[in-house]
Structure formats: structure tokens, C-alpha cells
């Protein structure tokens, strides 16, 4: 029906009832979850599995659907949720509000949500390039560490971190009252996304200090990531200048790709 109404244009379809092959037509949300730390953690395996099922446009209800969320749970969930391929805060009726603004314009929850959503939309050209490759080659978008570092067995059971494509390592905090976490840093040169500083460890578990308003974001050396200054909608963002982040590998080299997307045509 949507193809008939909007010929040559992309559709937005979202379902929680999909099957292998549905990814050609639809995204998937992980259904009616609960506002709990446990369900926040399970969202990552859920998203990584749907990538394998060929439905890369996937996300969980950020801050939790059933039951009342808390400021801390919602803040940590907004942080990682900014990197769900499908990113949506979603609540049910009769539960307390969880729009970040409900927690106050000056709240850390609002500031942290804006900060990480701005990074998401700064990286939109990279995200769309990953979706282009998913569409044309069946690649994953949100990607388990083991897909990139398969020969390193230590990556095989990592389910609390994930990558966007090959180049962005995402390390959220998913426990209450926690500021220091053990993260696995695979064998590559890595740079802190926000400071650009090269980190000194690789192929090892490492302690990351991630206070209330921080999550871990690292760029992998050897990759060029396209960016665009974000505005309030993707239509207006696309009018802004593009940029590149070049993260060098040990040999001082980097490669990257850009699918220059118009945001609406199917290209078919
Ligand atoms: C959730 O919050 C609402 C108020 O927004 C309250 O009426 C309800 O009892 C709370 N539910 C639970 C399970 O605490
Ligand atoms: C956002 O878009 C509006 C409308 O096109 C424009 O006036 C404004 O300058 C843009 N701001 C940024 C930061 O790109
Ligand atoms: C650096 O260059 C050497 C020699 O060409 C090569 O063996 C090695 O794999 C390169 N390292 C990276 C990280 O690309």
C-alpha cells in the first residue's frame, strides 16, 4: 500500500511481529519491555540478533515500556538508546512520564540525552552508509565485536558492548550506581570519540570511568567516518556541511566509505 501511495519513496514501517525476510520491508521494535536494568541489558543481544536475522533497523523501547522508570535508569537507557539503529523512547499509559524533559530542563537526563542524540545525528551519514551496505550486501549495522575480531575468542561472548559497523565501539553503563565498568577493548588502535585521545590499551579488558553523564564511545584506527552537523530534523541536517573524522591505524592510514543519501528515494 505504501509503495502505491509513495512511488519511488522509502517507507517507514515498524513491527514487533516479523520473520526472516521482513527486513526488506520493515523495521522491528523489541516489543513491550519493562523499565528494568535487566531488560536494558537484554536489549543489546536482541538488537544484535535482529541484525543477523536481516532486520537491521531495530531498537528497544528506551526507558522501558511497562512499569515506572527512574531518572537513573532512563538516563543510562537514553545514552545507549541513542545508538540503537531504531532509537525511540516509548512508554505505556498509567506509568509515570519518561520524556527526558519531564525530569526538568536542567536535569542531567536532558543534557545527556541531547549530548548523545547529537552524536547520533552527527554520525548520520555513517549510519546511513551502514544501512546502504545492509540493504545491498546484507551487512549488519549494529554489530557484535566478534564479527570484526573473530580470531580473538575473548570477543565471542561480549554482549554488553557493540559496534556501529566496523568503526565505532559503544560501551554503555547498564547497572545502577556504577561509574567504573570492565570493558573489552579489541585488538586495534582506538581513540576516545569525544577527546580524540588515543587510548593505551588493546586486546584486553580495561576499566573505563563512566560517570553519570558518560558512556564509552571509541573510534577504531584505520577508519574514516563521515559526519554532518545535525539540526532538529534529518531534512534540515542534510543541508549542513559534511565532515570527516579520520582515525589512523598503526601505520598512519585509514579508509572509509560514504553513501551520499538523499533521505527519501528507494534508488530502485
Ligand atoms: C507509576 O506512577 C504513577 C504516577 O505517574 C502511579 O500512579 C503508579 O501507581 C506508579 N506505578 C507503580 C507500579 O509504582
Ligand atoms: C536548522 O534549520 C533551520 C531551518 O532550515 C535553519 O534556519 C537553521 O540555521 C539550522 N540550524 C543549524 C544549526 O543547522
Ligand atoms: C601495517 O603495515 C604492515 C606492513 O605492510 C602490515 O603487515 C600490517 O598489517 C599493517 N597494520 C595495519 C594495522 O594495517
Q: How many whole angstroms does the radius of gyration measure?
A: 18 Å
Mean pLDDT: 96
- By DSSP (H or I, 4+ residues per run), the number of helices equals 7
End-to-end gap: 17 Å
Percentage of β-strand residues: 15-25%
Ligand inventory reads: 2-acetamido-2-deoxy-beta-D-glucopyranose
Determine the fraction of residues in helical runs and give it as a percent range. 25-40%
- Number of strand elements: 14
**Unreliable runs:** none
Spatial ordering of strands, largest sheet:
6-7-8-12-10
Helix and strand element order: HEEHEEHEHHEHEEEEEEEHE
> What structural class should be given to the helix and strand makeup?
alpha/beta
What does this structure look like?
Helix 3 (71-81) packs parallel to helix 4. The strands form five sheets. Strands 6-7-8-12-10 form a five-stranded antiparallel sheet. It has a three-stranded parallel sheet with strand order 1-2-3, with helices on one face. It is built from seven helices and 14 strands. Helix content is 25%, strand content 19%. The protein has 268 residues and is α/β, with parallel strands linked by helices. It has helices at residues 2-5, 37-52, 71-81, 108-122, 124-137, 145-148, 234-237; strands at residues 14-15, 27-29, 58-59, 61-62, 88-89, 142-143, 162-164, 168-171, 180-185, 190-192, 204-209, 216-220, 223-228, 242-247. Bound molecules: 2-acetamido-2-deoxy-beta-D-glucopyranose (3 copies).
